[in-house]
Amino acid sequence: MKKIFFILIFSSNLFCFVNSSHSQNLVPNYSFEVTDTCPYGVSEINSANQWFRANAATPDYFDSCSFSALSDVPDNFFGWQQGKTGGAYAGFYAFYYYPGYREYAEVQLTSPLAAGTKYYLSFYVSLADSSVFATDDFGMYLSVDSLYSIWTSNFPVTPQLENPEGTFVTDTLNWTRIAGEYIAVGGEKFLTLGNFKDGTTTDSLRVRPVNISSAAPQYIHAYYYVDDVCVSSNPVECGFPSLVNEIFSSVLNLKNVGGNIYSFQIPDGVNIDFQISGVNALGEKCALKIISQNKNEIQFKLNSTATGIYFVELISGGKKYSGKIFVE
In terms of CATH, what superfamily is 45-233? Predict the structure, then answer.
């Protein structure tokens, strides 16, 4: 049986039941802009609403509203960087002089992931100016429960999103995007960012000359700013290209089969997974009830008989099929 995701968007005189959970970014405060208390120093990730440290180590929060030069944006204790979005971001040590030390930033998603659904994951990092080293070892881990620990060592888990091995992020001027796809097991509702490898398996690359033997331990590190964290079933939401690359106009033949019930023949070549949606010029999203479905045809019922024009679209395999309904 074909798997179907339905949204119908009606005109403004209909009662609408918006369902946006499938397309929005599930990461609250994804760009760290929301805070109840501006940071007054380092080690204050908890000042960013919804975010918290995942272990006893101390990731940082930087905001242009800071009361301290240590945690200001763009100029702060670790270097100089504008936010990818807005005037705030977080930061953590991905490599440190003490090899077992790990910092992690964690947040609870706005809703758990749905089993079997493809999600698009992304975040941006920038190497801080103070870093003597760079690394390729950091990622995003999604879990059912919080990883919180009273220790400062690494979490021995495999993140669903990892920076490609051998791709050392050395750019201190720009933001580097880390992105990938993930099929959810189901129930994942916590997101953790950091380096999940231990000291023996973490790769490092020296990026500037410093006398290691005489330098203070706290300066022997790879420190990364992080911003714009995203988890969504909508690829565009997380910066991926649209899945639609071909448009076929008015080839979805919609028929009224009685009252406010309509049907259409499923076009040839439609993949086993496809989406159906309705749009109008106002862009309002509303519910739709499926009456029946087989391999050739789908029948659905409009939840209102109000007059108006309804534009229905079917998307499959990068192609869009569209049609109209006129209710008088």
Answer: Galactose-binding domain-like (2.60.120.260)
